Amino acid sequence: MTDTFEAKGKRKKLVAELRQKGISDEEVLRAIDKVPRHLFMDPAFLIHAYVDKAFPITSGQTISQPYTVAVQSSLLKVKKRDKILEIGTGSGYQAAILAEMGAKVYTVERFRELFVKAQRILTSLGYSADFFYGDGYDGKPQYGPFDGIIITAATPDVPELLLHQLKTGGRLVVPLGDSISQVMTVVQRIGPDNFEYSEHGNFVFVPMLKGTVNGK
Ligand code: SAH
After folding, report:
1. What is the pLDDT of residues 194-213, one digit of tens each?
2. Which stretches of 42-171 are DSSP H helices?
């Protein structure tokens, strides 16, 4: 699995498209330009890798749309060496973007198969991240507190335990809503028990579910 000139060219176009759609964080755009998204997808779907759409991966899950990855990554306001916790590793693409931006990434996935695959791809690309197989609802308190927490699955409510793993000033980015549509929400911790909410448009994610799936 390698990167190609063709894929690099397609990524430049994708970055231009994301700029047009309003993404302005240069570090996010640089990371999208750099990370070979096609390597996170099934080889049969390579031609779709740089179309700005979500796409099915194994276990009935999806690799997020590049625009969505760009919005969530921008809202996190990542700085180099920030500790970021991701709930919902999926393909590992979002984790790779955050690692490319210089974050120290901790990522949790409830499907064992995806956890194994994502870890393999990131390692082969030279990104270091800490991967966990498990239910992300409880977060990873032993590795916190975090500068940022990103949930890449839909949930009606913010998981309470995650809020308390944020540093003061830290930001949690989560699509809040039902299974049809969600509102991208940022929850910033401004004091021990003081949280500020802001809303950033409508999105559609697969649901956040409890428990784990061991699979094959
Ligand atoms: N960030 C991913 C998008 C994955 S889709 C990417 O870049 O490809 C959402 C993922 O969240 C799915 O893989 C799903 O299995 C996972 N998920 C849902 N509920 C979860 C939970 N409670 N804990 C951990 N992962 C969860």
Report:
1. 999 999 999 999 999 999 99
2. 66-76, 93-100, 112-125, 160-163
Nearest CA to ligand 1 atom 4: 90
Q: Give the span between the Cα atoms of 23 and 41, in whole angstroms.
A: 23
**Which residues sit with their C-beta closer than 6 Å to ligand 1?**
61-64, 87-88, 90-91, 93-94, 108-111, 114, 135-137, 152-153, 206, 208-209
Distance CA 42, CA 205 (A): 20
Q: pLDDT digits over 64-82, tens only?
A: 999 999 999 999 999 999 9
Structure tokens at 121: 């791809």
Q: Confidence band (pLDDT; 50, 70, 90) for 92?
A: very high
Mutate to test the pocket of ligand 1, among 85, 130, 152 (most ligand atoms within 8 A of CB): 152
Place of tokens 């990131």: 122
- In this structure, are residues 105 and 84 in contact, taking their beta carbons and an 8 Å threshold? yes
Residue with tokens 């779907």: 45
What CATH superfamily is the domain 5-203?
Answer: Vaccinia Virus protein VP39 (3.40.50.150)
In Å, what is the CA distance from 81 to each residue of 87, 104, 129, 155, 200?
19, 6, 12, 28, 25
> Could you give the angle at the alpha carbon of 62 between the alpha carbons of 106 and 112, nearest 5°?
55
Q: Is the pLDDT of residue 216 over 70?
A: no
pLDDT single digits (tens) 112-149: 999 999 999 999 999 999 999 999 999 999 999 999 99
